[in-house]
Specification:
The chain is of the alpha/beta class. It has a domain of about 170 residues: Rossmann fold (3-Layer(aba) Sandwich). It has 8 helices and 10 strands. The strands form 2 sheets. The chain has a 6-stranded mixed beta sheet, sandwiched between helices. A 4-stranded antiparallel beta sheet has the order 2-1-4-5, with helices on one face. Helix 3 packs across helix 4 and helix 3 packs parallel to helix 5. The longest helix is centred in the C-terminal third of the chain and has 19 residues. The N and C termini lie far apart (about 50 Å). The mean pLDDT is about 95.
């Protein structure tokens, strides 16, 4: 297999209303490559297109133009359910769709038609790794806080063992200790299993510790694709503050 795992070629996305393109750009000519085990943070001001970019990668949205390849295959040629098994997205405010925690954790494995003992063992393994208490298993979405739902949704994604994990602000509602433990586990999975992780994150302290690469988006464009060890984090922080300030002025 080619070491290139994910490749975007001049991908653009514009807004549409009732299926009609209005021409306002969300992403413009985005191109980059992703490799197994990459830990990538998507950084940029609000409205830069970070979440939209994640949604393109497992076809929750379709590009207006351009191409996305998974292991040299156009993702449009991959059945959607198979693509989403390999490339899983955890949104910032996840839902359990009326399921209990146990049912939600089992669901992606049921779709793979795995035997019940395998499902039970895998749930136990990842529940323990993420320090999810056993008493949560019978709770529903209404009985969980946002942070608890985030943790369960991340466990649900990891249980499916995807090749690429897409995370939208995964630590935004987590306590500091739980967030730190989660990042350690994700780093271990990236190093040991070559799982690729792409994370939208506004917390540069977390990005600096976790990521191997930073993709910086602003004004619908990819302005920077830089290895983490080559980044001037102080300068990046100032750049982000300036961009957020300018974006706020445009909303006034």
């Amino acid at each position: 297999m080619n070491n290139n795992q994910l490749k975007l070629k001049e991908v653009s996305l514009v807004t549409s209303i009732r299926g009609k393109i209005t021409g306002a750009p969300i992403l413009t000519d985005i191109s980059f490559e992703v490799f197994p085990g990459d830990r990538i943070c998507l950084i940029g001001p609000s409205g830069a297109g970070k979440t939209s970019l994640l949604r393109l990668l497992n076809r929750l949205s379709e590009p207006t133009k351009g191409e996305v390849y998974l292991e040299n295959q156009d993702i449009r040629a991959i059945p959607v359910l198979e693509l989403r098994r390999q490339v899983m997205l955890v949104p910032q405010e996840p839902k359990l769709l009326g399921m209990t925690v146990r049912e939600a954790l089992a669901y992606p494995l049921l779709l793979q038609h795995l035997p019940k003992p395998t499902i039970t063992e895998r749930i136990k393994t990842y529940r323990e790794q993420l320090h999810i208490p056993a008493e949560w298993l019978e709770r529903t979405e209404l009985q969980l806080s946002l942070g608890q739902r985030q943790l369960v949704a991340i466990a649900r994604a990891l249980i499916a063992q995807p090749k690429i994990l897409l995370l939208d602000e995964p630590t935004s509602a987590l306590d500091a200790g739980i967030a730190s433990h989660l990042l350690c586990l994700l780093t271990e999975l990236a190093l040991k299993d070559k799982m690729t992780i792409m994370m939208v994150n506004h917390q540069l302290d977390i990005a600096q510790i976790f990521c191997t690469r930073v993709l910086y988006l602003q004004n619908s464009q990819l302005l920077q694709d830089t290895p983490a060890n080559q980044i001037d984090w102080k300068q990046l922080r100032e750049q982000l503050v300036q961009a957020e300030t300018q974006a706020a002025k445009e909303w006034l």
